[in-house]
Specification:
alpha+beta, Alpha-Beta Plaits, 2 domains, 4-stranded antiparallel sheet, 65% helix, Hydrophobic protein (TIGR00271 family), transmembrane, transmembrane helix
């Protein structure tokens, strides 16, 4: 897997940046356009390299304060036909699909964790769907609510914040969760409160409904499913496989549990409300804990792989000279 970097730097930094790019393992091509940048004035440097080498090169460029004096842009070309690129990919440590570009992960999760009107709208709509599925004993509506819910974004951002100690990102994610869920639950409670006197469902609707019983009966598998979903979700973020997130959304009962709490409180079913609240808590904790574990594992692996590759290359060069 090949990546492309576009680096904008002032002329006095160009030589240092070029040396940094040339010496990076996994680089296939380096080109320079002197004076091509107008605002700010400077040079444009393009680098074609293996995706698994991007993180180390970005770290070295940041050490040169390139991001303060210019910019670093990362692109993923759809198709690159080059023997040099293939050779660079083979020499780079690890696999491109497993490579973590930490700034990319932070930016992606950060964008998904903002408390925006669209985020609130999706969470309210998802909780309303869950409440309808609960009172109508409709599994389809509950699954639809799981798919619509946007809560994984802030949960993933919270995990990234804990691992990378980006406390501003963590506060933003916690705000999105701490405000989003109560607002959505209040909206669901209000509609449930209006629906009972209108005769849309009876007050004893929660006495039946075997299809939704799992929501307020948390057990060991509740936490296990949350951990598996959190692992799969963070892997999909790292590997840029957004299609896998749909399965993650459908597998966890965060939104259905929030909807059940709202309906149960309105109907006076406090024990069931407590059970569903516990289900919600287990899901949130399990997802974040699993995502943190995945990020810690990848950080450990991505640090050790380049060191092992450098030792292997030194050993090969020693044998060649011998």
């Amino acid at each position: 897997m090949i990546a492309q970097l576009r680096i904008c730097v002032p002329p006095e930094l160009s030589a240092a940046v070029l040396d940094c790019c040339r010496g990076q393992l996994g680089v296939a091509e380096v080109s320079r356009q002197p004076g091509a940048a107008v605002l700010p004035a400077g040079d444009i440097i393009h680098v074609l390299l293996a995706r698994e080498s991007v993180e180390r090169l970005v770290e070295e460029l940041q050490a040169l304060n390139v991001q303060q004096n210019g910019s670093i842009s990362v692109f993923m070309p759809e198709l690159v036909l080059s023997d040099r690129a293939d050779k660079a990919t083979a020499e780079a440590p690890g696999e491109g699909a497993d490579a973590v570009i930490w700034d990319e992960v932070s930016r992606q999760t950060g964008e998904d964790s903002r408390l925006t009107w669209s985020y609130l709208a999706f969470l309210i709509l998802a909780t309303q769907l869950a409440a309808i599925g609960i009172v109508t004993d409709s599994t389809i509506a509950i699954v639809g609510a799981m798919a619509v819910g946007p809560e994984f974004g802030p949960l993933a951002a919270l995990a990234v914040a804990l691992v990378r100690r980006q406390w501003q990102l963590g506060r933003r994610a916690a705000l999105a969760l701490g405000i989003g869920f109560p607002v959505a639950m209040l909206a669901a409670a209000f509609t449930a409160w209006l629906s009972v006197p209108l005769g849309l469902f009876p007050a004893d609707v929660l006495d039946g409904g075997s299809a939704v019983e799992f929501i307020y009966h948390p057990g060991p598998y509740s936490l296990i499913v949350a951990v598996l979903a959190g692992t799969a979700g963070m892997l999909s973020v790292i590997s840029r496989r957004s299609a896998a997130l749909i399965g993650v959304f459908i597998s966890v009962t965060t939104v259905p549990a929030a909807g059940f709490v709202a309906v149960a409180l309105v109907l006076g079913e406090y024990q069931k409300a407590a059970g569903s609240a516990l289900q919600l808590g287990l899901n949130l904790v399990g997802i974040v804990a699993a995502a943190v574990a995945v990020l810690l594992f990848y950080r450990l692996v991505t640090k050790r792989l380049p060191e092992a590759t450098a030792r292997r290359l030194r050993w090969q060069r020693t044998r060649t000279r011998g």
